[in-house]
Amino acid sequence: MTEGKARAPEQITDRLFATERNPEDFRFDASVARVFPDMIRRSVPGYTTIIPMIEVITEQYAQPGSNCYDLGCSLGASTLAMRHGIPYPDCTLVGVDNSSAMIERCEHYIALDDHELPVTLRCEDLLNTELNQAAVTTLNFTLQFVPPEHRLNLLTRIADATLPGGVLILSEKVRFESDCEQDIQTRLHHEFKRANGYSDLEISQKRAAIEKVLIPETLAAHRERLLNAGFDQVLVWYQCFNFVSMLAIKTR
């Protein structure tokens, strides 16, 4: 792993749900992009571990002359991790996001990063983005925002584009088959948010805004779909509460 010199995005405090507001679906607009680094750090347990490990995994699985993709790149945290993990100068790195506000800020952080590997950013729907010769693809808390009926097709396209020996890094919020476990893990997640300074109002309003657009599934459902899509092996390499990161490997 190379010594990273990426500059962390500025931490503007997330106060989007701190006051009473009309209920509306969560959107990755300019207001979210502005506070996103603080929001995800305080909302997703393990995020600050997952990002540097994406660099480690990328270094292990990148291949000479291959393409690497960060699908749903947001502000580019995973993109930068992949950039610093890729050991081959002839690799191509592509970040894709359908939010122009996210891509605009991502361009800024890519430009600040002290690394020579070029990064191509695409502002487009990842369901339609072109994929080929992929060694490492990342869906870092992205698939959960894709409508369930489109998820298999997306993963199949990724698997079809993945070279033998290539991988997909899939990080997701999951739900549990046991109601008891679901309740415990949800409570612990909310306590994590409270420990990071979110009020009960912020937690409840964020949950109401996001529940119709973030559709979690069980770990078993993810495994089955990844195998049906064409990956040969699926393993969990990280879990904290109801947040999981998986490695789907294409061996053939």
Automatic annotation (TrEMBL):
Q: Which gene encodes it?
A: cmoA
Q: Where does S-adenosyl-L-methionine bind?
A: 47, 72-74, 97-98, 125-126, 140, 207
Q: Name one GO molecular function term.
A: carboxyl- or carbamoyltransferase activity
Q: Which CDD domains match?
A: AdoMet_MTases
The name under which this protein is listed is Carboxy-S-adenosyl-L-methionine synthase
Query: Could you confirm whether the keyword Cell inner membrane appears in this record?
Result: no
Please name the NCBIfam families in this protein's record. Answer: carboxy-S-adenosyl-L-methionine synthase CmoA
Q: Extract the Pfam families matched here.
A: Methyltransf_25
Q: Which SUPFAM superfamilies match?
A: S-adenosyl-L-methionine-dependent methyltransferases
- Keywords, ordered alphabetically: S-adenosyl-L-methionine, Transferase
Name the job this protein performs: Catalyzes the conversion of S-adenosyl-L-methionine (SAM) to carboxy-S-adenosyl-L-methionine (Cx-SAM).
Task: Give the Enzyme Commission number.
Answer: 2.1.3.-
The record's section on InterPro entries has: CmoA, Methyltransf_25, SAM-dependent_MTases_sf
GO biological processes = tRNA wobble uridine modification
| Subunit field text | Homodimer.
> Of which family is this protein a member?
Belongs to the class I-like SAM-binding methyltransferase superfamily. Cx-SAM synthase family.
Q: Does the keyword Transferase apply?
A: yes
Which reaction(s) are listed as its catalytic activity?
Answer: prephenate + S-adenosyl-L-methionine = carboxy-S-adenosyl-L-methionine + 3-phenylpyruvate + H2O
Ranges for domain Methyltransferase come to 70-166
